[in-house]
């Protein structure tokens, strides 16, 4: 649809994990200064900011930015649930694509551990969440349906966690870096049957950032990552009368548009970061992204296709299951991982020769049925890469 | 800067007030269906949604929209504090201006009375707010400084409330429609000295909406309202080392850009809706908008310049002080009021012959120092008007 005219000039993240005492401003500083350095820019070079946060109080973002020295420019703070970070990325990219701004910071932050340890539990305050209809239950129901419809086994589900934890051993910024076995995953306590504890992502504190500008416009164009396409859709996640579960249709539709806009197909993508908030989520998402047929996601992970060394690694960072899921920061951490992979900077977790990568994030409401946003982005290496 | 190529095709709001039992979805339905009817559109005509809410849980907006029949389109939910509604309006307008979408819904919602009556107080949960550095204190300090610097009197401050309450007698959707006297305003209990209760806006439940599309593209172009300009800035609201208080500079800078983009000055504007969250706020804002000199805002309201019948009425709706301040809905209610004024639909509160109108909204963080956004929009009558 649109020509490739925008690029990621630089990325950065804080560490991910329980960092209650570090605080938002310092996490923001870590992520943003790394991204600015990576892009060869300093704070006053930024023309506008699109930021993602879900639980941040009003003022969270501007307070962080002004300590970095980014002030007096437009700041748009976006809350699109789990897809807040990639929604901010999408809007930042569109702002450059349409000529509104030249050097835009896409930024995401969430400091969750302080809030959720205390009296405030935003999900419990939601009328549906208070009835137990929260995220783990929704994924639990999806998993039950998938086991019934397609014969997905508990072991196949557990393999997603095993794979992603294995990947995270090589990701020094991930929250959980110890490997787990299928037996350990299935033996951990049940959260929402058949989802066990090690099949759930954890809350965390972190920030992540990306600088977006015109393709070829940065100080070192060979270090840019081209944005081949970015699509954002909202809509119903689950039609109870249809066979497909949570998110399948909206991910498939968003991905189809992103592939079309980029002029390629799923087979062309070398590496993916996807929204594995729960193990069944990655299984469903790999199907909807076109890596295999409907119902084939369990066999896909079992085959090794999506593991390191396989033809299309999924979540080489360890995914949400290992990195943790600080909502506003997650999407931009996914973007950062793919940028590092395409530039050959991913160290021990490098996917050899990766040239094309894709990021998928799904933002559901606390009520689970109505999707805030699904974002799919296709990125391409510009320079020689790794 | 940009040519006038976008217009407001229709607007709508719910009533404003304590409507705890009505609930967000029904308020959203009232506002959005009115805006759609006004634009001659139905729900499936909408291409994208930019929504504003501050305290809404994730999923609040998509749940509202899907009950109206707006689904499967991109939804971007923006939290820019008190300016969330006009930030959504600004982004919606830019999305049309840059050709991303053709028929965009700008939507704002806040249901506050249920939350603030209960255990959750988001401002108290903020570290600065918990220390008492919340909005009333900030405006109280601003007022004290203004009394010292410029001799603004308690009576002049009270006159803002007297004027806006008088205006709201003719606004059937306002929360507070009884007139008050200077004595009553100054005699109401002190909230943050010298700010008394009747000088504070109240929390409320409401939704508001506007449909934005290309200028001349709607079914009845004579009923469109041209968007002459819209500017959004973020940045520091208060420099303690400078003489100017809370928000002056950012409002002045944003307004100057909006006037320049529209090719006009403050004197050309016939009617304003401004962010009178507290009485001193309107005094400062009228100065920063260029209606009078620095420090002259007290004398301005005293002169009757900004009252109904004066040359430049400010807040003919009654403003936040009368309408109530459901954060996400406020900015779009301000937009709706100016649209009604320019189209001659404001009934008993009509400003005769209004051709040009402006809206200003200020979004501060709970910590008060770092501004989330100031938005200033200039609108113009297209058809014969009232």
Verbal overview:
The structure is a homodimer of 386-residue chains. With 386 residues, the first copy, chain A, is an alpha/beta fold. Chain A has a domain at 6-117 and 203-221: Peroxisomal Thiolase, Chain A, domain 1 (3-Layer(aba) Sandwich), CATH 3.40.47. The first copy, chain A, has 14 helices and eleven strands. In chain A, the strands form two sheets. The first copy, chain A, has a nine-stranded mixed sheet. The radius of gyration of chain A is 19 Å and the shape is globular. In chain A, 63% of the residues are buried. At the A-B interface, helix 2, strand 3, helix 3, strand 8 and strand 11 of A face helix 2, strand 3, helix 3, strand 8 and strand 11 of B.
Q: Secondary-structure map with pairings?
A:
The structure is a homodimer of 386-residue chains.
Chain A: E1 6-13, H1 24-39, E2 48-52, H2 60-68, E3 75-78, H3 84-97, E4 104-111, H4 113-117, H5 122-125, H6 127-130, H7 135-150, H8 154-168, H9 182-187, E5 190-192, E6 195-196, E7 205-214, E8 225-236, H10 248-262, E9 271-273, H11 279-288, H12 297-303, H13 319-323, H14 327-342, E10 356-364, E11 370-381
Parallel strand pairs in A: 2-3, 2-4, 9-10
Antiparallel strand pairs in A: 1-7, 1-8, 4-7, 5-6, 8-11, 10-11
């Amino acid at each position: 649809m649109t020509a490739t005219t925008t690029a990621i000039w630089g990325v950065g993240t804080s560490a991910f994990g329980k960092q209650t005492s570090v605080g938002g401003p310092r996490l923001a500083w870590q992520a943003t200064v790394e991204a600015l350095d990576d892009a060869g820019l300093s704070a006053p070079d930024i023309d506008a900011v699109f930021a993602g946060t879900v639980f941040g109080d009003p003022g969270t973002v501007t307070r962080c930015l002004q300590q970095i020295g980014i002030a007096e420019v437009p700041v748009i703070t976006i809350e699109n649930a789990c897809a807040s970070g990639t929604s901010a990325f999408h809007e930042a990219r569109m702002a450059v694509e349409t000529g509104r701004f030249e050097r835009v910071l896409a930024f995401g932050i969430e400091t969750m551990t302080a809030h959720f340890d205390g009296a405030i539990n935003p999900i419990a305050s939601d009328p549906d969440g208070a009835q137990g209809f929260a995220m783990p239950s929704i994924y639990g129901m999806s998993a039950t349906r998938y086991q019934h419809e397609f014969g997905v086994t508990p072991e196949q589900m557990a393999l997603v966690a095993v794979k992603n934890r294995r990947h995270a051993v090589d990701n020094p910024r991930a929250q959980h870096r110890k490997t787990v076995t299928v037996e350990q995953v299935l033996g951990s306590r049940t959260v929402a049957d058949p989802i066990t504890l090690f099949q759930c992502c954890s809350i965390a504190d972190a920030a992540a950032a990306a600088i977006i500008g015109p393709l070829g416009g940065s100080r070192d164009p060979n270090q840019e990552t081209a944005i081949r396409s970015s699509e954002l859709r909202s809509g119903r996640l689950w039609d109870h009368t249809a066979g497909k579960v949570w998110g399948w249709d909206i991910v498939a539709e968003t991905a189809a548009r992103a592939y079309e806009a980029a002029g390629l197909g799923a087979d062309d993508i070398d590496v993916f970061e996807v929204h594995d908030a729960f193990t069944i989520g990655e299984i469903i998402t790999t199907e909807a992204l076109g890596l295999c047929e409907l119902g084939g996601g369990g066999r896909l992970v079992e085959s090794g296709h999506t593991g390191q060394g396989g033809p299309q690694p999924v979540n080489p960072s360890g995914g949400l299951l290992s990195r943790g899921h600080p909502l506003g920061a997650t999407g931009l951490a996914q973007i950062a991982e793919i940028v590092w992979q395409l530039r050959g900077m991913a160290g021990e977790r490098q996917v050899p020769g990766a040239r094309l990568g894709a990021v998928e994030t799904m933002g559901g409401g606390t009520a689970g049925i109505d999707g805030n946003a699904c974002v799919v982005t296709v990125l391409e290496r510009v320079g020689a890469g790794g």
